[in-house]
Structure formats: structure tokens, C-alpha cells
Design goal:
single chain; mainly beta; Immunoglobulin-like
């Protein structure tokens, strides 16, 4: 349960942006993009319960079924810090009431120049 990409990719620049998402796992996932508004580790911001810590979602792609691909376009990314988060619960526990995927590592951040 990870988002993987090359954060050194020189194509991560401000302006119109698109994500090609491939779900290689065996559970349904989502991709929620936030422009991070506060300086602190991402997990600390999420766990703080402060609704302004991550700002409003800029893009959401749901559901992404196992073995499928999806695209998410963003009209404009300004320079700054961003996070990708999956909030869906772990389905491998009884009744699918496991912890959210971000607790299991499905959260990532990157910077836009």
C-alpha cells in the first residue's frame, strides 16, 4: 500500500498536471491530492484532526479497482508541497473495518517547483 513515483522527476513542475494511476494491489483504492498548508510531517498533520492542515482536496479519483488504471487531471498546480492520500479502510480485516490505507503507508508527498 504505497504511492510510488520518482520525486526527482523533472516533470513535476507547476501548471496543468496529470496523474496516471495503476492499482497493482488486491483492494480498492482512492487517490486524494492535497496542497499541504502547514509545515509538519504529513502523518502528524492528518492525525491532528485540523481540517485546514492539508487544505481542501484538489483532486479525487475513486474508486480504483484492483488491476485497473485511472487518470486524474489537475487544472493547475502551484509551486509548493503536496500529498497523495488514500483514506479507504483496509478490507483484509473482518467486515472491512481495518485502519485507513494511509496508516498502512499509502500516503506520500512531493514538491512542485
Amino acid at each position: 500500500m504505497v504511492f510510488s513515483y520518482d520525486p526527482t522527476d523533472s516533470r513535476i513542475k507547476s501548471g496543468k498536471f496529470g496523474f496516471d494511476v495503476e492499482n497493482k494491489g488486491d483492494q480498492v483504492h482512492e487517490v486524494v491530492l492535497f496542497q499541504v498548508k502547514k509545515e509538519a510531517p504529513i502523518m502528524e498533520l492528518i492525525e491532528s484532526g485540523d481540517p485546514g492542515a492539508l487544505g481542501f482536496p484538489m483532486g479525487v479519483k475513486l474508486p480504483i479497482l484492483p488491476g485497473t488504471d485511472a487518470k486524474m487531471s489537475i487544472p493547475a498546480l502551484e509551486p509548493g508541497r503536496y500529498a497523495l492520500v488514500c483514506h479507504l479502510p483496509d478490507q483484509s480485516v473482518p467486515r472491512g473495518e481495518g485502519p485507513p490505507h494511509f496508516v498502512l503507508g499509502m500516503v506520500s508527498e512531493f514538491r512542485v517547483e
